[in-house]
Amino acid sequence: MATISAATVKELRDKTGAGMMDCKKALVAADGDMELALENLRKAGIAKAAKKSGRETKEGRVVTLVDGSIAVIAEVACETDFVAKNEKFQAYLQALVERVAADYDGKDGDVTDEVVENETPTITELIATIGENMQIRRVARWQTDGMLATYIHMGGRIGVVVEGQGETDDEFLRDVCMHVAAFRPQYIQPSDIPEDVVAKEKEIAAAQVEGKPANIIDKIVMGKISKWYTEVCLTQQPWLRDDKSKLQKVAPGLTINRFARWEMGEAL
């Protein structure tokens, strides 16, 4: 049996646009014969599907899964909303997050590159079947001793995952997810904001009141920064269920460790 080098696999990939695993399998089956491997990819419809890879993917869905101590969130893009609602596309999304939850034991954080490498044959076959370009944009897997909750908004246009610990329950943590979806916090609390970001906000605030006495400027700037915190920090924002309060007050025994809010098609 011929030895299949990484360079040979890349050459076939460059010729077809097919996934690395598809190319390797085709070369192994063809005993290293490049032309036969290319022919087999074409027969399987994979090379044809790869030709669609340059087409824009502005639609798609975000999908989430919680399985005990594991949460997965994934964003997969396609060309049209019609396909995003397709049963086969939806089934692929569900199978994807289930595989990531089961097959990446110990992984915590972004796993996009690994998933793209391992899952490309599956999505390529789906492209060949449905006839639209598709792309795994990002995938994250969280494994934790804390509590996890997820929320899907607008049929999968927005997906949220929250990890918390302390005094809470599944229902309340889901409310936190809904809050994140609605209010788009950038940070959990003021202490999480990088110093240079705070410094820039203070600079902008000071410029808006230039000409006033220094002691007045300082008070105004601090007031503006405090208001800014209520816009960008999860714990300081007006609470989803009571806009006269905030998360820090309604759930003082809850600690939010991290959250992710993914919106379909947003800049990565």
Layout of helices and strands, plus pairs?
Elements: H1 6-16, H2 20-29, H3 34-43, H4 46-50, E1 59-67, E2 70-78, H5 81-84, H6 87-103, E3 109-110, H7 112-130, E4 134-143, E5 147-153, E6 158-166, H8 170-183, H9 195-208, H10 214-232, E7 238-239, E8 242-246, H11 247-250, E9 254-263
Antiparallel strand pairs: 1-2, 2-4, 3-4, 5-6, 6-9, 7-8
Helix pairs in contact: 1-2, 1-3, 2-3, 6-7, 9-10
The total beta strand count reads 9
CATH class of one domain: Alpha Beta
Q: Bin the helical content.
A: 40-55%
Task: Output the strand order for the largest sheet.
Answer: 1-2-4-3
- The radius of gyration is 24 Å
Describe this entry's structure for a reader.
This protein is an alpha+beta fold and 268 residues long. Helix content is 47%, strand content 24%. It is built from eleven helices and nine strands. The strands form three sheets. It has a four-stranded antiparallel β-sheet with strand order 1-2-4-3. It has a three-stranded antiparallel β-sheet with strand order 5-6-9. Strands 7-8 form a two-stranded antiparallel sheet. Helix 9 packs across helix 10. 32% of the residues are buried.
